[in-house]
Amino acid sequence: MYSDYLQNYENALEKVSELSQRSSAFDRIVQAGANDPRCRGKNLTSYLIMPVQRIPRYKMLLEELHKRTDDDWFDKVRRGTNAAGLDTPE
Hints:
mainly alpha
């Protein structure tokens, strides 16, 4: 499901842009959503990118956690690939 989303993300952005240009009603709905305080100033494309950014964000978090974990911590992986599938320094 996630890979399907990633593969179709660019198409979704193009479709939103196309519909916004073609349909003033669609554009008004998108603008109304962006102006709604519950959306905290984010527009539709800001929300569409969030799933795309999720996995890299987790990877960065895990890398930072690994970097800040003491080398003598009992379950720190020292070489190869750790449980999260991240390459770890030797």
